[in-house]
Design brief:
Blueprint lengths: L1 H10 L4 H17 L5 H9 L6 H24 L5 H18 L6 H20 L1 H10 L7 H26 L3 H19 L15 H5 L12 H5 L3 H7 L6 H18 L3 H30 L5 H11 L1 H10 L10 H6 L3 H15 L2 H11 L6 H30 L1 H55 L7
Helix pairs in contact: 2-7, 2-8, 2-9, 4-6, 4-7, 4-20, 5-6, 5-7, 5-9, 7-20, 8-9, 8-14, 8-19, 12-21, 13-14, 13-20, 13-21, 14-15, 14-18, 14-19, 15-19, 15-21, 16-18, 16-21, 20-21
């Protein structure tokens, strides 16, 4: 009976996963608020909306400090409690959000806002590596891509929630930040009551040893940097930030492209974007599950799935770019989509996003599979920072292409990046089996050593020296 209770303590997730998913929803909602609030913020602080450079600096400081905090969290998560890192992050940006109601008007208010968002960036940066490292110990290896698909949906839902909240509250921007902040504080309170899973508990090589009372004591050290190079897949997975550029270009260009090329008003584009987001969320769930099921028969399955999800969307972009649909001036949402070809236009881009969002869960799943438990948070943090680079480069590249060659050419850049990205996935196919074998061998050896240590501790002291 005592052993059964001990096993329950080590394996029960105590509803941590749903809290982590909600944490990502409102983490990304907080990040997405500034975009729809640009004009209200400028009017409040400067009395005009013509010069957006000050808010550009806010976004720069936020992103920079978020990137630094992400790297720090990735390294710390392998030494300290990952739940506490999540708690620290959510408390930080949650409290800042609530206190936004106290930010004054005028230029002095802008200074306070700048400092507040910079500090919020630190809190937000603590979340991603901690959440995904925790998720890898909450879900079995055969269901990780499915779980990461759920987390991908949470991130998409958060972006949409931020856009909606910012657009709905408008000039009451302080309330928008306060509402999101209050929800984050509530999630932090729930998170504080949860238990952290044992490291490595979901690895099939380690599970029996941990359930028997052994502890996975291995942690990140400076020597591990060389060990990471022993898994060639890591470099291709981390530096493949090009796979986020197509999506960032679509989000950046979609309103202007649909207005200038198809004369579709913002309200109709917003309705289309909601449909595209829903399609993307469905794709993350579907192809995450596909990767897991296929993985049971082929250990390269997650890589193949990600590769196909990067390749096939290019096919759907061709009719989208070729469309010559023109919406009559002043048409409402119903009238706009009644125009022949309008629904098809949105369906093409929605289909592209549906398939492309299958990359994310399989990318996270592969990155988790080829790294040891103590390396995962660090590797996810490095990869997340590279994704920030990709999200920054996408709009920059698109803006230059649009200014020199026009909007159609800029949107065609999405097609080019998807095609080029194929060549960055191909090397992983040749490395993945060897990298998975390496992790399996190391974990099997460690499980044997952990069992030996546990038995020696019992024999020497009459108690389990390795118990949790």
């Amino acid at each position: 009976m005592k052993g059964a209770r001990k096993a329950m303590t080590r394996t029960a997730p105590t509803a941590v996963f749903p809290v982590l998913a909600l944490l990502l929803v409102f983490n990304f909602a907080d990040q997405s608020l500034q975009s729809p609030l640009v004009n209200p913020l400028l009017a409040d602080f400067f009395g005009r909306t013509t010069d957006i450079v000050p808010l550009g600096w806010v976004a720069f400081a936020f992103t920079l400090l978020s990137a630094i905090a992400t790297i720090a969290a990735g390294l710390l998560a392998d030494h300290v409690s990952r739940l506490r890192l999540c708690l620290a992050g959510s408390l930080t940006y949650g409290l800042i959000g609530v206190l936004s109601v106290l930010i004054p008007h005028g230029r002095a208010g802008f200074t306070v806002f700048f400092l507040a968002r910079a500090l919020a960036g630190v809190g937000i940066g603590l979340i991603i590596p901690s959440v995904f490292a925790l998720a890898s110990d909450l879900v079995s290896s055969g269901r990780r891509s499915t779980a990461f698909g759920v987390l991908s949906v949470a991130m998409l839902a958060g972006r949409m929630a931020g856009f909606i909240a910012g657009g709905a509250l408008g000039s009451q921007w302080r309330s928008a930040y306060a509402v999101i902040g209050a929800i984050n504080l509530a999630l932090a309170a729930v998170l504080a009551s949860r238990r952290e899973p044992a490291r490595g508990i979901q690895e099939p090589e380690l599970r029996d040893a941990i359930l028997a009372g052994a502890v996975y004591r291995f942690r990140w050290t400076r020597k591990d940097a060389a060990a990471l190079r022993a898994a060639p897949s890591n470099a291709w997975l981390i530096f493949n930030f090009l796979d986020v550029i197509p999506g960032s270009i679509v989000l950046f260009m979609i309103f202007k492209y649909m207005k200038d090329v198809h004369n579709m008003e913002a309200v109709s584009v917003s309705a289309a974007v909601i449909g595209v987001f829903i399609a993307g969320a469905a794709g993350a769930l579907v192809f995450g599950r596909v990767g897991d099921i296929w993985f049971r028969r082929d250990r390269r399955a997650k890589v193949w799935t990600a590769l196909l999800c990067n390749t096939v969307p290019a096919v759907f972009m061709i009719p989208f770019l070729a469309s010559r649909v023109w919406i009559p001036a002043g048409a409402g949402v119903g009238e706009a989509f009644a125009v022949p070809g309008a629904i098809g236009l949105v369906a093409w881009i929605a289909a592209a996003m549906f398939i492309n969002q299958g990359v994310n869960p399989n990318w996270y799943g592969t990155l988790t599979d080829v790294n040891l438990p103590e390396h995962r948070a660090a590797m996810i943090s490095f990869a997340s920072v590279m994704d920030m680079v990709g999200n920054a480069l996408g709009p920059l590249c698109a803006s230059y292409l649009a200014s020199k060659f026009g909007l159609r050419t800029a949107m065609a850049g999405v097609l080019a990046f998807w095609v080029f990205n194929i060549f960055l996935w191909l090397p992983i196919l040749s490395h993945i089996r060897r990298d998975l074998d390496r992790v399996h061998t190391i974990l099997s050896d460690r499980a044997a050593a952990m069992n030996a240590e546990r038995k020696d501790g019992k024999n020497s002291h009459g108690t389990d020296a390795c118990s949790l």
